[in-house]
DNA sequence: CGTAGTATGTACGCTAGCGCACAATATGGC
DNA sequence: GCCATATTGTGCGCTAGCGTACATACTACG
């Protein structure tokens, strides 16, 4: 697991800011630990802070009337939670819960808004991130329609892996199922196949990835699309 | 069909601008007719213009490696095409094609960008729209996972209806199927049920909605969520 | 060290939607 | 008015994933 003390630049958005800009924000950035399962925002709820994860992962998901749910995107150290604060409307129908315990830096909403409205590099970075998030959500929509549970599991594992500095995720099959919006048994079956192929190993809430390349052989194209889009959008973000 | 001459304020985003702002843009807004099937943007392609539909409807969709496709959102008179121009990155993996022929006002990309960067009411309106678009895409993702073809067809018909001033859509079942990312036969079946219930009537590429309330009885919650979110975000947009 | 409770494995019938094949019917262009 | 073509109807068998039920196995905690 992640034992390093958190650093500002472990969050890619903070890291993408010009040093002077980050320096200015530092005194307002508060480090907080987020426990697994913590609900940061319910549907229609208002966030008081925006969160920049370093080691935590937050899941953006919807809960339907019949109780079933689906993740539309995850937010890890590549992003932030709380875009509705600067996009307008202040809240969304989305839920946000902690999917992997860890640390975030947080910033008071009004302060972020004020900074955003300066229109400088921070605005640029946040809008780019929002664009990347849209791609992620869109790809989830398409993937939900056309790809198998096994493919989607691989996508989800890879995206989660990219947000951690570890090959092990603390995660029950039940939880993964609710993220993907499928039955727990569906995950048991798909994960069983991957384990037989010696791509992953799991025991009661711990999944270890043995062979990342193996995941990439089983994943659908959706992972690559999202990954490349994030890379592309942040490669030249400072220009 | 729509025989009125197009007006600027038929597009809700343009209508939401303060009169002075709209006045300033008018001389740059060019009215163009968009024929059915026109591809405005391929995956990774760059738009030279942004488009504000009045009577046209544009579909944002993905095409997968295996050739299947799915719409992630539609853009009608409630919105605009080309958010990536101001969000950053200039292009996206999304395709944009004309789903219903009609008119759009278009604006040169660099000009829009310049206006956006003023940070005034236009920026506010465009960001709010983007937020609403995110809700629409998210809801599509969830709907794809959990709802039946019939429910999704109703959602799609209602959303499309809201963008037209007409009860009749010019639309083959084949086209609807490719939007929803399902088989054409699936649409034939679902549409058959709706026709038997006297909710719609169709003949070779023309669908007439006889009973809008009937559609709302068969639709899933997703329609309402999207609809309400658009209403909410634009109710107070000028404040 | 035993046990309660959580997590995972497995089985079975069921349904929605798929893929394919082909029939039937409408419509616009000649 | 006729025909080529686009559109819609229908009928298979098939599969992925669902819902349910219950068995097993791990592990944390007393």
From TrEMBL, chains A, B:
Q: Which UniProt keywords apply?
A: DNA-binding, Transcription, Transcription regulation
**Which SMART domains is this protein grouped with?**
cNMP, HTH_CRP
A molecular-function term among this protein's GO annotations: DNA-binding transcription factor activity
Give the HTH crp-type domain ranges. Answer: 147-213
GO CC field:
cytosol
Organism superkingdom? Bacteria
Look up keyword Translocase and say if it applies. Answer: no
Q: Is Nucleus found in the keyword set?
A: no
Domain Cyclic nucleotide-binding positions: 13-104
The name on file for this protein is Transcriptional regulator, Crp/Fnr family
Which organism is this entry from? Nitrosospira multiformis
